[in-house]
Amino acid sequence: MLSDDIQNIDNWKQQLKQFPDCISDKQINCFEAGDSRVMENLVLTGNNIYDMYFPDIPSQYNPQSPSIWIEFAAAAFRCHTFVRDLYSRATPDYKVIDAKLLWDISHHATIAWDFDNGGLDAITRGSVYDFGSVWNANFVDQIRHHLFETITNTKADTKRFDLPAMNINRARDHGINGYNAYREWCGFKRAQNFQQFLNFVNVEEIEDLKTTYPYVFCKIFHLNKVYENDSFIVDIQMMYVDLWVGINMENPVRGGLIGSTAACIIAQQFLKIKVADRFYYEHPGVFTPEQLRSIKSYPIRCFMCTTIEIQLMQPNPLLPPSHPGNSQLSCDQCQQFDLRAW
User: Fold this and answer.
1) b/e 56-91 (16+ beta carbons within 10 angstroms → b)
2) 222 labelled as ligand-binding?
3) Is residue 292 part of a domain?
4) Per-residue pLDDT reduced to its tens digit, 66-106
5) Where, if anywhere, are coiled coils annotated (predicted)?
């Protein structure tokens, strides 16, 4: 969050001033201008995402493109099934103030400036306890019927969008292949009929797919008069299932939140970013061993404690305090980020 960025820039600038013998005012100004944002991203993105969620990805630099796959950006990482309708606002000791609709938060800047009720910090505190929705093919009303909802003219006509429909159209605009093709790319068996989706998809979702893509059967009937190769005809049928639709109908992997095909694409993308980015923070020469130890020893819990008005925070803020081994700890236990290695 921008407010957290600004707070950390000021915190680290003041801390650097404690070392006048090794860093000048000019260097502090440079730190304020840009290096602090880099440092913050390293602490949060590098240490707390890769070490927490992708611990087995190798870190050896591989000089290939670290670019983002369109399959990742336009389908696999669009995890909108987790979005909620309502988001709680809470006090520093986590007493719920109220709950705001997603539309209100995204359209009314006054909520961010409502300092009597905690501003943006109150929403962040509420999110610590709010549970996300489960991974499935269901989406809340706020993103299906009220996305970017606006009044368009004097007649008060309402303009709104359906995010799932936009996701499907976006992938088609980019020419992304169908769900079945990426099952095969990930090493899973390419389905020859809808029933072969059963290894990842429930029977109910398969019936929904048959209803959602009825024109496929017309295509098959037409092709049957031209081609006598039944396997080719069935393969055409499977091609019509959109990637984003298919991955949202998959059951979550054991111990995870998302389905197998989405997990495959996301993991491969993060691996690509990590090994191909020569500035990735764990690669040799990017930081000294002392600097790297300082980064790795600073938990995301303490980052939130120092930038948000809270009293307690669990070790992993992305999991609820009720999760085993994730009980909340006092923010008084957090130390300042150690900049002595710089």
Assistant:
1) ebeeebeeeebeebebbebbbbbbbbeebeebbbbb
2) no
3) yes
4) 788 999 999 999 988 888 889 999 998 889 999 998 888 88
5) none
